[in-house]
Amino acid sequence: MRVVGVPTGWYSTSKATASGLLLELSRQIGLSVNTIRNIAQDYLSYLEQSYPRSTPSILGIDEVMIAGEYRCVLTDLEHHRLFDILPTRKQSYLESYFERLPNKENIHTVCSDMWQPFKNVCAKCLPNTTLVLDRFHVVKLANEAMESIRKCHQNELDAKGRKQLKKHLRWLLIKRLAQLSSDDLKTLEVLAKEYPKLVIAYYLKEKFFDIYEAKDKNAAILAFFEWTDSIDEQATGMYLPEFYRLKQIVKRHFAQTFSYWDSANKVSNGYTECVNGLIKLANRLGRGYSFEMIRARALYGHKDSDKPKKGRQEKITDQED
Q1: What are phi and psi of 64, to 5 degrees?
Q2: Among candidates 277, 288, 263, which has minimal Cα distance to 73?
Q3: How far apart are alpha carbons 162 and 141 in whole angstroms?
């Protein structure tokens, strides 16, 4: 067997491309590009067969754009490990994957966003699991509702008014109420006289966020229905369709939204989102790399600790993705 050395640092620069790396290797070691590509493919196959993979009990599911297409990312949320990256998020592929997954009965909780195929696949292939909607995807909708109201209101103003609104309200409105300084509160009080709809939207957004402060499921459900009463036109004195849409979304995913309080340690997909960020970085740094190569770098490019990592303490703050 011939040992092939890779030029140190070449693949880590953002200027490197897949074709550029292969050509440079070919020039330095005297092998053809096709031979190098075949060696790499053989090694990827070896890694795939030898990589230890234990089906997690708490599974995170999300999507990420790699090489121009949406892929499905699977994580072990209990031990904070990347479990797999699938070539597509299409329902038919996911069903086939989970039907063949060894020890899938180990999975008791799945955390995902509101992508309907994820929900369908869990119902069909993992019927005994608890599906939990990631809380940050849910509260993000409240931020988006408030931002939509702000932008609509902003578009109705002249240039001077838009500038003033952006300067004084945009960043203030995305803060949590508990994070506002005394000066912020005074500003909010003054601006409430000029932009009452926006300030009402802010407090409705905050009240929705507060649902996740509930200590148990029953309290959370009660808080949600109190919130739905508070967005009523009779309560606010104005029609706010953005929040009505949010209410309908939560009702459509009611069981999965409130199963958050049934899950161990109130599971969220925060770790999966962090993994997605690293995958996106690898995708940018490896311009021109195939999906298979980026997947391999993400899965096999580091060693996981044998011990479970302590989950990070997550607080609902301004905007989470």
Answers
A1: -150, 145
A2: 277
A3: 24
The predicted-structure confidence for 248-284, as pLDDT tens digits, reads as follows: 999 999 999 999 999 888 999 999 999 999 888 877 7
User: 81: Cβ–Cβ under 8 A, 6 or more apart, which residues?
Assistant: 56, 75, 304
Write down how long the chain is: 321
Cα–Cα distances (Å) from 9 to 4, 91, 234, 261, in that order, read 15, 39, 64, 47
Residue 176 Ramachandran class (φ > 0 left, ψ -120 to 50 alpha, else beta): beta
Neighbouring residues of 212: CB distance < 8 A, sequence distance ≥ 6 = 135, 139, 220, 260, 316
pTM of the complete model: 0.79
Q: Which domains does the chain have, with CATH numbers?
A: 10-50 (no CATH), 58-134+268-300 (3.30.420.10), 138-262 (no CATH)
Q: What is the mean pLDDT of residues 54-71?
A: 94
Q: Tell me which residue of 63, 3, 64 sits closest to 31, measured CA to CA.
A: 3
Question: What does the alpha-carbon distance between residue 99 and residue 118 come to, in Å, rounded to a whole number?
Answer: 14
